[in-house]
Q: What sequence folds into this?
């Protein structure tokens, strides 16, 4: 049943969001701390586990794959509802701050990726 | 006309599916015919979405791009946080646990490094523009983290409304730039494997930016980048009004 996979996906998101909200409350932060990331870990665990086979194989699996494939269309819709006009109205300061933060962060990707490779080879 | 409007408004989510479908079809056609596949179709679709959002915002004066047109209200639901998070989680289906473990440490480091670096850069720009009070500098720095961290921090430490608005704008610029820039720089920063995607997500942090940027680069990398990115805003909200504000106030 396709809906089994969709329900598993929904369950993972709801559980992740609850944990993310609880983490936020525990840390006294007005934000959801990693709810989506935690939900993703649940789905990875379920997908790699024998116990959840009936919820992730065959038709049930295609219920999850459908939403995974809808990701790009949803992102296109998300782009179309951004406050782009507001971003340009912020003036020079907002543009300089945003551009500078992105440029420096881009430059750090290869440097930090090396740490990842090093720690991975050490473990092996 | 009334009949069409009624049907469009009543079925706004269905209209959104159709509009986005046509947009993507045109984008892939353009990518194929004009750029011979060098630019990803989804990158063009996302760029078209952003351009449409700009004109939507200018025309309606609203805050949600084309979704402020009554006929396209469904875009707001389809591209809203709930659907975005649902689809992001779905992309994790098929991810191997071992890949996550490999980049675990670098991923965690990148989240903290990303928040601190963006904050420092944003705060430095605020100082360059002549701000001298700690609350304003901290708030603008937090805006450079993400457009959620900016107002959360600003409200917590009592920054002015103008400064909070500026911080949101800085965060929006960042998010949009990550959407457009990622496919262009991917080759030069080694963004072609799950490990570097996790580091990338942690460093950039803006969930919308990372989600769209990676989708336009290589959809297979999306779950890895998204996973770390979703912790970023939380860490930013944690550090902004506390440690980072404290550090800025000792200087100013």
A:
């Amino acid at each position: 049943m396709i809906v089994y996979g969709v329900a598993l996906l929904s369950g993972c998101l709801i559980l992740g969001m609850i944990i993310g909200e609880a983490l936020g409350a525990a840390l006294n932060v007005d934000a959801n701390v990693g709810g989506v990331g935690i939900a993703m870990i649940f789905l990875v665990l379920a997908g790699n586990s024998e116990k959840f086979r009936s919820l992730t194989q065959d038709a049930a699996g295609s219920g999850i794959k459908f939403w995974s494939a809808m990701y790009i269309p949803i992102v296109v819709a998300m782009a179309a509802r951004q406050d782009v006009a507001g971003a340009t109205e912020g003036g020079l300061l907002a543009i300089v701050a945003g551009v500078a933060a992105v440029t420096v962060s881009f430059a750090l990707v290869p440097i930090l990726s090396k740490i990842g490779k090093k720690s991975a080879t050490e473990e092996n | 006309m009334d009949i069409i409007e009624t049907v469009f408004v009543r079925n706004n989510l269905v209209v959104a599916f159709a509009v986005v479908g046509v947009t993507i079809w045109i984008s892939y056609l353009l990518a194929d015919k004009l750029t011979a596949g060098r630019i990803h179709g989804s990158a063009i679709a996302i760029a078209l979405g952003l351009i449409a959002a700009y004109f939507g915002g200018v025309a309606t004066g609203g805050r949600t791009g084309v979704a402020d047109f009554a006929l396209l209200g469904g875009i707001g639901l389809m591209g809203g946080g709930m659907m975005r998070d649902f689809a992001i989680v779905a992309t994790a289906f098929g991810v191997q646990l071992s890949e996550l473990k490999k980049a675990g440490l670098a991923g965690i480091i990148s989240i903290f490094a990303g928040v601190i670096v963006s904050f420092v850069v944003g705060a430095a720009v605020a100082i360059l523009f002549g701000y001298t009070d700690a609350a304003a500098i901290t708030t603008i720095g937090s805006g450079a983290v993400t457009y959620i961290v900016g107002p959360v921090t600003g409200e917590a430490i009592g920054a002015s409304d103008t400064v909070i608005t500026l911080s949101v704008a800085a965060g929006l610029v960042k998010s949009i730039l990550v959407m457009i820039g990622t496919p262009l720089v991917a080759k030069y920063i080694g963004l072609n494997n799950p490990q570097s995607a996790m580091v990338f997500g942690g460093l950039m942090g803006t969930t919308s930016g990372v989600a769209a940027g990676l989708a336009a680069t290589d959809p297979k990398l999306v779950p890895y980048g998204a996973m770390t990115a979703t912790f970023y805003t939380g860490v930013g909200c944690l550090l902004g009004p506390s440690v980072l504000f404290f550090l800025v106030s000792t200087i100013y």
In short: The two ends of chain B are 60 Å apart (CA to CA).
